[in-house]
Specification:
Oligomer: homodimer
Structural class of chain A: alpha+beta
Number of helices of chain A: 10
Order of helices and strands of chain A: HEHEEHEHEHEHHHEEEEEEHHEEEEEEE
Number of domains of chain A: 2
Strand order of the largest sheet of chain A: 4-3-2-1-5-6
Chain lengths: 346, 346
């Protein structure tokens, strides 16, 4: 289950970052950050990585399981805080960093009092560029999302509820993978004008669009794909908006290559929409990184300065939302390649 | 959709708590806390409740939706931090509390710098006692969990994978409700010895037990129920352990009434298990509150001093886990009534 060469490389990469930041250890309090280094995904245990050794702080409830499913760490059973103090004292570890965005204020304040140093984003940066093991999982998760889009498209019918279509699609994903990547969005008719609609008992109608924002999880890695399907014959105004969003997505995708800023991909997509007079109706960023979490570094929003790197996996998902009437969003997930990009959601 | 009399009462209850704590306003940064006051559940927006007025800070992405689905709040569109500063300045609000356990260290530190006061658990305490609207949802969610237990029991068969049984049950819940309350646990054979097993492709075998830890979500409220089903004829040692856990659960349940401590319920259940020599194999608390979140106040663990109150909804779920061999857990969700308790998971 654990592909330890990859895990060792990830740990060595973090140690390099620690040395650059003059840190002797880093405390990992975020479920996804811990999973990245252990390949064992469950809530409730923390990782502590020093320059030589590494530990997991595990409550009794999870101890047997965690010991069985991890390697390269010493598992310490018991209450987190005393265990942490014991290890830092016994190994004389002094300069310890933690991510201030990945733990609650109470814990962060207690660590700060102990002399721990807030250093945001060290693991976030590492996780943004996927290694071969991660890419394999991302490819499978995104391929499954594409199969899911075909599956759900056939099940969109006038009179059917959003909920029932979403339930069938979730079943499709649950049988074939670790499950859904997020609460699947099936937004029909006027609901399509809410970018983050909560799937409801609304019955689909002929002549209305249905936005399907879907994804599966394969070995802990998530996929993300959106299609806007028209149900039967649909208005010319919808068709016009659809073509604008399609063009915007295309322009965004064409801009992707290593070295360009995340903001410039947003700009390329947004300019198409602005030019057609729908700038105010595009109410979110053009995209985001995706991996263990559904939203990861980098954010592809206005002015984002982060440079794209080969190996990043990002979404491009412009949308136009006409309040009370309808919306269109088209989203694919792409791998940044050395010379451009590759669409994974197919 | 919104039952505003209940929401107004909840807000008035919080205002009473604010006055007791000499606060003029409270910032709500936790999804479930915000939902409690708005009845609109979606990630990404915050609530700010003063003694007279109340506001929601909403990103553009969610603005139309939030405005349409909430009442009793002024919705403010835009970036959170500047919006918050504007409101506190315009309304001259000074003594503002926030929950240090419900936001990240970065945000907490920024608020602290602005003079905000960390005050934990004000909403947690309110949420622990359910009102009639909440109880209606909890009853339906827990009844659905009981139906789910019957549904999945019929689908546990030698040769079937844990994953396929879990997928069918999730489909059952997804069609009838907002979905699953948490990642459903189907833990067969030796996996049953891991209290928080991650459902896998393991194939069930005759003569082995299967732990099913399941729950559904009805209008944002979660249910929680565990059954341990033997697959065909099963060993006397399993039967013995099963009867001990059953007895422990019974003893715990019999102890429940308003005024007793949460710890005494744990003690009653734990003593049965200890007496039979399995104290070390009961590696978790006896139960927890449940509602909008799957784990809520109070915790029913050793020494917990919180007193039970009528209207609390709690689980009683002792377990015995023999590493590498098998485990047994039996869990029901109960309402604390004026004179005892009522099992909701039936």
């Amino acid at each position: 289950m654990v592909s330890s060469p990859f895990l060792s490389l990830r740990m060595e990469a973090l140690r390099d970052v620690l040395r650059e930041n003059k840190l002797e250890a880093y405390l990992l309090t975020n479920l996804s950050d811990v999973y990245y280094f252990t390949d064992f995904k469950t809530e409730g245990y923390y990782a502590f990585i020093g320059l030589q050794d590494a530990w997991l702080f595990v409550p009794s409830l999870l101890f047997q399981q965690t010991k069985a499913h991890t390697s390269g760490f010493e598992c310490i059973q018991g209450t987190f805080f005393p265990s942490l103090q014991k290890v830092t004292k016994a190994h004389k570890i002094k300069k310890i960093g933690f991510d201030p965005d990945q733990l609650d204020y109470s814990l962060g304040a207690a660590l700060k009092k102990m002399g721990f140093i807030p250093k945001r984003g060290l693991v976030t940066q590492l996780r943004a560029v996927k290694d071969a093991l991660e890419l394999d999982r991302m490819r499978r998760a995104n391929h499954l999302a594409a199969l899911g889009a075909d599956f759900v498209k056939k099940r969109l019918k006038p009179g059917r509820t959003e909920r029932s279509a979403a339930a069938d699609l979730a079943h499709f994903f649950n049988k074939k993978s670790d499950g859904v990547a997020f609460d699947l969005i099936i937004a029909a008719g006027p609901h399509s004008s809410h970018p983050h609609h909560v799937t409801s008992d609304y019955k689909m109608k002929a002549g209305e669009p249905v936005i399907c924002d879907i994804g599966a999880m394969v070995e802990g890695y998530r996929s993300d794909l959106t299609r806007t399907f028209p149900l039967g014959r649909i208005s010319p105004s919808f068709q016009r908006v659809f073509r604008i969003v399609e063009k915007a997505q295309n322009e965004g995708i064409c801009r992707i290559k290593p070295g360009v800023t995340a903001g410039s991909v947003d700009e390329a997509a947004r300019n198409v929409i602005k030019k057609h007079g729908f700038g105010k109706e595009f109410v979110h960023s053009t995209g985001h990184g995706v991996g263990i979490d559904i939203h990861e570094h980098p954010r592809l929003g206005p002015g984002a300065k982060d440079k794209l790197k080969a190996g990043m996996v990002i979404t491009v998902e412009p949308g136009i939302y006409i309040p009370g009437r309808f919306g269109v969003r088209i989203e694919d997930t792409l791998l940044v390649t050395p010379f451009g990009s590759e669409i994974l959601t197919r």
